[in-house]
Design a protein that fits this description.
By secondary structure, this protein is α+β, with helices and mostly antiparallel strands. The chain has one domain: Roll (Pnp Oxidase, Chain A). It is 21% helix and 35% strand. Strand 7 and strand 8 form a beta hairpin.
């Protein structure tokens, strides 16, 4: 006999929760594949969105995760942090599967992202213009929402208004 699926049908409440986790995130766990070993590597990155709500980050070419994303742009991001109380596993979190697109510094797109990013991360003004820093836009391909214990959903980009 087949086991029932733990995945619930996607509804408007799940969509709103997923979008809210993206909109409120200031940082994320970024999962990449090491080009040297093929092993998964996870790091923390600053997290923001472009004017269309698409996830972005500002990263240095000196970081290992930049090298990894250039070699294999498929990645994942985890947003949503546990609250101050209760079991961390009961708090909502969203895993985004995405493809990383590096934004050319010489474009208007980069200038627009710079302004928006500084609105969301004003302290980045200290390093945003360093030559080794640039933007990455994450094209979300799918998402897994854990809305708390027993509340699992699979979302697509349209569910997240992406």
């Amino acid at each position: 006999m087949d086991k029932p699926s733990p995945i619930r049908p996607t509804d408007d409440e799940a969509r709103a929760l997923g979008r809210g986790l993206i909109d409120s995130a200031r940082f994320a766990a970024l999962g990449v594949t090491s080009p040297d070993t093929g092993a998964p590597v996870v790091t923390r990155v600053a997290f923001a969105t472009d004017d269309g709500g698409v996830p972005i980050t500002l990263i240095s070419t000196l970081s290992a995760h930049t090298t990894a994303l250039k070699a294999a742009p498929e990645c994942s991001l985890l947003v949503g942090e546990p609250g101050d109380r209760g079991d961390p596993l009961t708090h909502p979190r969203l895993t985004l599967q995405a493809k990383a697109d590096f934004v050319d510094r010489a474009t208007d797109d980069h200038k627009d992202l710079r302004a928006r990013y500084l609105d969301q991360h004003p302290k980045a003004k200290l390093y945003i213009d360093f030559g080794d820093f640039g933007f990455v836009r994450f094209r979300v391909t799918s998402a897994a929402l854990n809305g708390g214990f027993g509340k699992a959903f699979v979302l697509n980009p349209a569910d997240l208004s992406l």
